[in-house]
Amino acid sequence: MAGGTGRAAPMTPDAYQPHRIFAAPAVPSARTGRLIAGIFCVEFLFAIGLTLFGMVLNAVSPDLALSVFDGDTAAGLLLQLTSFALLAASVGIVLNRLHDRSFMTAIGAPDVAARDLTRAFLAVLAIYFLVEILPPWWSTEELAGHRAPFLWLLMVPLGLIGLLIQTGAEEIFYRGYIQQQLAARFDSPRVWLIVPNLLFAMAHWDNGTTQTESWQYMIWAFFFGLAASDLTARTGTLGAAVGLHLANNAYAFLLFGETDAPDSGLSLFLLPPGGAMPATADGVAGGYVFSFDLFVDLSVVALSWLAARVALRR
Questions:
Q1: If you average pLDDT over every residue of the chain, what do you get?
Q2: Which of 33, 39, 41, 212 has the smallest number of Cβ neighbours within 10 A?
Q3: What residues pair up with 146 in beta bridges, in sequence order?
Q4: What is the pTM of this model?
C-alpha cells in the first residue's frame, strides 16, 4: 500500500483538538493507498446504484425518469435528492469492508451531531434571511411566476428531508470519510482541509452552463467545503457541516429557480429561462471568473461560517 502509518509531530491547533477524537477510528487503516482505493470504490458503487435506480425508474415511467434526471418537477427533484442515500450506503460499505469500521464513526457522537446540526442550520438560515431583506432588493417584475404558497409550504418538509439526505451523504463522503482518513494519516491540517475540498470542488465543475460559471462554482465550492471542514474540525462531528450545507441548499433549492430548469422542482419563485445570470456578448456569463458576484458569494460563505461558529460557540 502507498503511504504508511507513521505520523509527523503534532501540528493541530488547539481549536482542532476535537478533530483528533473524530479521526481516531480511522487510525488503524490510515494508509494513503487504501483511501485512494476506497474513494474509487465509493464512486463505482454509487455509479452502479444510480444506474440501477435509473433503470427501475425508466421501466416504471420514462417521463418520471427524465424528471428525476432534470429535477424540474417536485416529485422528480425529491427522488433525485433521495437517491443520494446510495452515496451514503456506498461509503458505509467501503468503511465496513475496506477499513473495518462502522458507518457512524464517520458522523461522530449522534446527540452532539444533532445538536450542532440544528444550531448551525438556524444560524446560517438567519444569514440568508438577512441577505434577502437587506438592499439591494429584487423586484417581483423579474419573476416569470411562482408556485401556490400553500402547496409549496406542504412540500417544504419533504424538501428538507430530501436535502438532508443529499447534504448528509456528501458530508459523510467528503468531510467524514475522506477528511478523517487523511487526518489519521497526516497530522497537518493543510492536508486534510485542502485535499477533500479540492475533490469536492472538482465534483461541482459541470454545474455551470459556461466555462466561466463552472470555474466560479468550483471556486465557491472549494471555500464552502473549507468552511464545512473547519466546522467539523472544531466540533468533532459532522453535525455543524451538515447544518451549514443544509441551510445553503434549502435556500438554493426551495426559494429560487428558473422555469423548467434543472433542480427547479421545489422552488417557490421562478425566474425566466436564463434570467438568473444573463450571458455577455461572447456567451460567457458574468465575463471574468473573479467577478464581483463571486466576491459576494464568497462573502456570504464567510458570514455563514462565522454565524455557525457563534451559534456553536466554537
A1: 91
A2: 33
A3: 269
A4: 0.91
What average pLDDT does this structure show over 49-62?
Answer: 97
pLDDT of the residue at 207: 59
pLDDT at residue 275, rounded to an integer: 58
Residue in 175, 162, 161, 303 with CA at minimum distance from that of residue 239 = 175
Distance between CA atoms of 247 and 54, rounded to whole angstroms? 28
pLDDT surpassing 70 at residue 10: no
Angle, helices 110-133/239-254, rounded to nearest 10 degrees: 40
Contact yes or no for 106/95 (Cβ under 8 A): yes
pLDDT score recorded for residue 274: 67
**Whose CA is closest to 172, among 221, 217, 105?**
105
Amino acid at 21: I
Q: Which residues contact 54 (CB under 8 A, 6 or more apart)?
A: 65, 68, 69
Q: List all residues 6 or more positions away from 232 whose beta carbon is below 8 Å from its beta carbon.
A: 19, 22, 171, 175, 176, 179, 238, 240, 241
* Mean of pLDDT values over 48-69: 96
Distance CA 224, CA 248 (A): 10
Q: Please say if the pLDDT value at position 11 is more than 80.
A: no
